[in-house]
């Protein structure tokens, strides 16, 4: 699967599509990835972050054990995001909202923050 193009500079509150049913919004000092996963139940959805990428994977399994629906989306976040600030919430309407804060640039003589990976099951 090809990676998403780098996030363009956007005005606060602006939204732009990443792929079918997925949007990214810049709002103040945060970025939000918004995805429609209404066809899946919370246990079917897994969100992972690695470095500056967030991946959403969902899989619906039928009663007979066959996979009847899948959703996968990978989005590149700006390099100024704080990987330890990633959080996600699922609305009653089935919209997944992943929020990540921007971090301050390292000052002179400070080392940039290391790489991180995390996973959340809803």
TrEMBL record:
<feature type="region of interest" description="Disordered">
    <location>
        <begin position="103"/>
        <end position="122"/>
    </location>
</feature>
<protein>
    <recommendedName>
        <fullName>SHSP domain-containing protein</fullName>
    </recommendedName>
</protein>
<dbReference type="InterPro" id="IPR002068">
    <property type="entry name" value="A-crystallin/Hsp20_dom"/>
</dbReference>
<comment type="similarity">
    <text>Belongs to the small heat shock protein (HSP20) family.</text>
</comment>
<feature type="domain" description="SHSP">
    <location>
        <begin position="13"/>
        <end position="118"/>
    </location>
</feature>
<dbReference type="InterPro" id="IPR008978">
    <property type="entry name" value="HSP20-like_chaperone"/>
</dbReference>
<dbReference type="Pfam" id="PF00011">
    <property type="entry name" value="HSP20"/>
</dbReference>
């Amino acid at each position: 699967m090809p990676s998403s193009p780098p996030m363009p500079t956007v005005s606060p509150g602006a939204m732009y599509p990443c792929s079918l049913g997925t949007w990214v919004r810049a709002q103040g000092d945060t970025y939000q990835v918004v995805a429609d996963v209404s066809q899946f139940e919370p246990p079917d959805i897994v969100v992972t972050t690695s470095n500056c990428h967030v991946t959403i994977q969902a899989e619906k399994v039928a009663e007979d054990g066959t996979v009847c629906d899948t959703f996968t989306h990978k989005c590149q976040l700006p390099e100024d995001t704080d990987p330890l600030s990633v959080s996600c919430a699922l609305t009653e309407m089935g919209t997944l909202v992943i929020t990540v804060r921007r971090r301050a640039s390292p000052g002179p003589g400070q080392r940039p923050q290391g790489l991180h990976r995390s996973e959340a099951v809803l």
